[in-house]
Amino acid sequence: MKGTVGELGEFGLIRELTSRLTSTPAVQLGPGDDAAVVAAPDRRVVATTDVLLEGRHFRRDWSTAYDVGRKAAAQNLADIAAMGAEPTAVLLALVVPAELPATWPVELMDGIRDECQVAGAAVVGGDVVRGETITVSITALGDLRNRPPVTRAGARPGNLVAVTGWLGWSAAGLAVLSRGFRSPRAFVEAHRRPEPPYHAGPAAADLGATAMTDISDGLVADLGHIAAASGVDIDLRSAAVDVPAQMTDIGQAVGVDPLHWVLTGGEDHAIAAVFPRDVKLPARWRIIGEAARPAGRTPRVTVDGAPWEKAGGWDHFGPGA
Amino acid sequence: MKGTVGELGEFGLIRELTSRLTSTPAVQLGPGDDAAVVAAPDRRVVATTDVLLEGRHFRRDWSTAYDVGRKAAAQNLADIAAMGAEPTAVLLALVVPAELPATWPVELMDGIRDECQVAGAAVVGGDVVRGETITVSITALGDLRNRPPVTRAGARPGNLVAVTGWLGWSAAGLAVLSRGFRSPRAFVEAHRRPEPPYHAGPAAADLGATAMTDISDGLVADLGHIAAASGVDIDLRSAAVDVPAQMTDIGQAVGVDPLHWVLTGGEDHAIAAVFPRDVKLPARWRIIGEAARPAGRTPRVTVDGAPWEKAGGWDHFGPGA
C-alpha cells in the first residue's frame, strides 16, 4: 500500500482496516453499522478501556505498528482475563496524523487482530479521526460464562498469593532499548509484544481465586491495589520470585538490581491471583507470598517483611512520568 | 477545585472523576477494578465507540467541558439507540494535558454522567493519560431486550423513510458561532449539546423498522449509508422536511440555504428509520421520503428526484476536513 492516511481518506482507511479483520461466532454484527452486536451468553458483559499514546506508551523507532497493535490489544484483553472472563470483542478508537504512511494503521490493525485471535476475541468496531498524536484507545469486552467475577477486593488473611506469566521482562527489555541496544532479543521482544496468560484468568476463577489482577503497573504496585481493596497486608518472599539468569546478566551490565524489574516492572501483563491455602495450583502458577491481617492502619505490600522502597505505582501525571 | 491535572496527579484525578458518578441497577461492578461488569439480560451486547478531539470536534472557547461531555456521550449513546437498543453503560478513555485546569475533566465527567442518566446508562470505567491534545474516546454499550438489531441493511423498495429529533440545528448553531455570534441561543445550544431522541430507537424497532441510523454525518449522507447497505434508492421530499422559521432567518442573515443545514448537518443525532408502508407512526416521527428499487448501478439518495450536490459525507482526512 502506498501513500499517507490523508491520501487514502477516512473511508478508504476504514475500508482497508475492516477488510483485514476476522470474526468469531460471538460476533453477531461486526464493523460498518451504527454499533456492533456481540454475544453475551452469561447475561453480563465485562468491559475495560485503555489508551496508548505515541511518545508516552510506545515509540515508532522501537516498536513496529504491528507490535503496538499486539500490545494495545493485549493490555486490554489481559484486564478482561484478570476478572476471570473470556475476551470476546474489541473496539478501536484511533487518532492518526494525515501525513502518517497508510501502512502504519493497517499494520497496527493486523497486530490488534492477531492478538485478539490469541485471546479468542475479534475486532467488532471502531472510529478513526485525524489528529497530531497517534492515539490508540481500545475497549475490550468479555464473557464470564457463569463464573463470579474475581475482583481485587476478595483476598483474606492467610490466602496465598501466586503469579503466572512473565514478570520484569518488558522492563528489562526497555532498559536494554533505552541504552541503545537491541539484544538480548527475548527481552526486547517481551517489551515490544507482551504475552499475557489469558487462559490463566478464567482458570484461576475456576480454581477459587479470591482476588485477581493483571500486572500492568508492576507487581508490588498492583498487589498494593489488591491489598487496599481487600484490606489485607501482602508479604512477598523474594526467594520465591523467579529472576532468570539472563535478566541478572542484563542487570549487571546496566547496573540495576534485576529484582527491581521483577517487582516493579509493568507491561508484561502477568496475572496475580490470591487463593485459599488449600488450593492445588497447576505448575504454571508460582506461589510468591501470603496475605495477612493488616499490621498498621493502611494495608501494605512488603518484600521479605520490609517495604520495597522503589515500588511506588506509576503515576502518568507525576514528575517522573 | 484548584490546580491542574498535573498537580492533582493521575490517581487523584481518577478519584475525583469516579467520586462524581452515579450508578444503575445494570452496573454490577463499576470503576476501580481491572474491568467493569454490566448486565446484558438479552445475552447480546451492542457496542460502539467514537473519538472527539479538541480543535477538530470541539473548541474550549465555544463549548464548556460539561457540554463536551454531554455531546461526547450523546453521540455514542445515539448509536446504541439507533440499533434499537437501550444504552446501559459507557467507558471513557481520556487524554488531557498536565497543565489543563483540573476542573475541566471533572466538568466533562459531570456532562458525560448527566447525558448517560438521560439515556438510562452509567459510566462504568475508563482510563486517563497525559498528552498534548484533549482526546475524549467513549465506548457505549446497550441491551436489545429481545428486539432484533435494526441495521442499515434492511430497507426495501416501497418502504417509507422517517425521522425524529432535530435536524440542522447544530449546523445552524455552528454557523452562528463561526461568525462570532452567540445567538439565537436555541441553535447555539443545539450545537453545544445535542438532544438525541434515545427512546425513539427502541420504539422504532418495536414499530417494525427495517433499517435505522442516527444522523451524525448529515441526513443525506447517513441515508446514503442505508441506501448502500440495503441496495435501494431513497428519494426525499424537501417539502416534507421541517425548516423552522428561525433557521430560515439565520440562513438569510449568513447567506446559506437553511435546507442545506437540514440535509447535510450532522451532530444533532436525530434518528432516521425506514418502515413498511403500513406502519402507524407516532406523531413525533415525520415521513420525509421513500425507498425504491435502484435506478442505476449504485444506490443513491435524491432530493425531489435530483441529486443533492452538496451532500457528500464528512471525510475526516479529506482536504476540506
Written overview of the protein:
The structure is a homodimer of 321-residue chains. In chain A, 59% of the residues are buried. Chain A has 2 domains: 5-143, 60s Ribosomal Protein L30, Chain: A, CATH 3.30.1330.10; 160-311, PurM-like C-terminal domain (Phosphoribosyl-aminoimidazole Synthetase, Chain A, domain 2). The radius of gyration of chain A is 20 Å and the shape is globular. Chain A is of the alpha+beta class and 321 residues long. In chain A, helix 5 (169-178) runs parallel beside helix 9 (245-254) and helix 5 crosses helix 10 (258-264). In chain A, the strands form 3 sheets. The first copy, chain A, has a 7-stranded mixed sheet. In chain A, strands 3-6-4-5 form a 4-stranded mixed sheet. A two-stranded antiparallel ribbon of chain A has the order 1-2. The first copy, chain A, has helices at residues 5-8, 10-19, 65-81, 103-119, 169-178, 185-192, 200-206, 219-230, 245-254, 258-264; strands at 27-29, 36-39, 44-53, 86-96, 122-130, 135-143, 160-164, 211-214, 233-236, 271-275, 286-292, 301-303, 306-307. In chain A, strand 1 (27-29) and strand 2 form a beta hairpin. Helix content of chain A is 32%, strand content 24%. The first copy, chain A, has 10 helices and 13 strands. At the A-B interface, helix 1, helix 2, strand 2, strand 3 and strand 4 of A face helix 1, helix 2, strand 2, strand 3 and strand 4 of B. Strand 3 of chain A pairs antiparallel with strand 2 of chain B. Chains A, B: It comes from Actinacidiphila guanduensis. Chains A, B: Mg(2+) 1 binds at residues 49-50, 127. Chains A, B: Its EC number is 2.7.4.16. Chains A, B: It holds the Pfam family AIRS_C. Chains A, B: Catalyzes the ATP-dependent phosphorylation of thiamine-monophosphate (TMP) to form thiamine-pyrophosphate (TPP), the active form of vitamin B1.
